[in-house]
């Protein structure tokens, strides 16, 4: 389903950083910003690159130094603009209690995609990094404008509904930042074989997806 990229096509990159980082954390992985940016650059000249998160609020899914507040410097170094989206609001002007704002990152990222699509016709490809199926609506809107839409998601946390709605689906942990399993230890002198390393944790992923071939994931394999 992947189509050849027109020469010189410009690319817009939008990262749902909260979804992306927390999804990787459930599999004991961390984002590799350089590898992600390199993959996106394969699809054209990246002229817009933004990552969305509440950089100051602690996420219970993340531990210690892995909180979002430490991420903006690495994103800036990779040429990606961190966009602050508050996910908690105070209950009343004088209250110390807060409430979570549901889907605030999704709403801001969707609005920016549509806002940029109209005045910049040179942006022919949109790369959205998220596994959240809530982005299906903006994907459909961008494609009606003639845009090519690519989703990059984590295999165990990406909606299968994307397979029928995008031009290409890339699985970050299988196609971009793969982990090569260690070789089993050599047999001991007594003839007993040392146990091999266990596979990486998947954070309770669903049924295994088919292994990705070299390059991009074949959408037909995803939905088969």
What about the largest sheet? 6 strands, parallel
Low-confidence stretches: 184-224
The proportion of strand residues reads 15-25%
Strand tally is 8
Ends: how far apart? 14 Å
Counting copies of identical and different chains, the oligomeric state is single chain
Radius of gyration: 19 Å
State the order of secondary-structure elements, H for helix, E for strand. EHHEHEEEHEHEEHH
Structural summary, described in words:
The protein is of the alpha/beta class. Helices cover 25% and strands 19% of the residues. It is built from seven helices and eight strands; from the N terminus they run βααβαβββαβαββαα. The strands form two sheets. The chain has a six-stranded parallel beta sheet with strand order 3-2-1-6-7-8. The chain has a two-stranded antiparallel sheet with strand order 4-5. The chain is globular.
